[in-house]
């Protein structure tokens, strides 16, 4: 199996960090922009897209800063995806930092997928 490559993307989002955290850390918030439906039980989240379901385990969360998941189906224990809120101390600009992993030939596709997802998130939040 090919080793996955870690990549990070930064998306400026004009919204309060506490509101953004609700959208990245709760099943109802994630259902608004990330998947058609999201359910959770304890540290396990079920993400549903057009009838197919993927399960992820919540690895860590720090309110109102970040949340980190690992797909249950992913054999590679070092890979995860993390959504982290970063606030510039001087300008107070808010950014969402996405960290994810993909096989080398799927990195560009993964980045495009995140760009589309974050575009959905910005629309839901009314951010530009």
Task: Give the tags.
single chain, 128 residues, alpha+beta, START-like_dom_sf, SRPBCC domain-containing protein, START_2
Give your account of this protein's structure.
This protein has 128 residues and is of the alpha+beta class. It has a single domain (5-123), classed as 2-Layer Sandwich (Alpha-D-Glucose-1,6-Bisphosphate, Chain A, domain 4), CATH 3.30.530. The chain contains 3 helices and 7 strands. The protein has helices at 17-25, 27-33, 107-125; strands spanning 5-12, 37-41, 44-49, 52-62, 66-71, 81-87, 94-102. It has a 7-stranded antiparallel sheet with strand order 1-7-6-5-4-3-2. Strand 3 and strand 4 form a beta hairpin. Helix 1 (17-25) packs across helix 2 (27-33). The longest helix has 19 residues, at 107-125. The protein is globular and about 40 Å long. The termini are far apart.
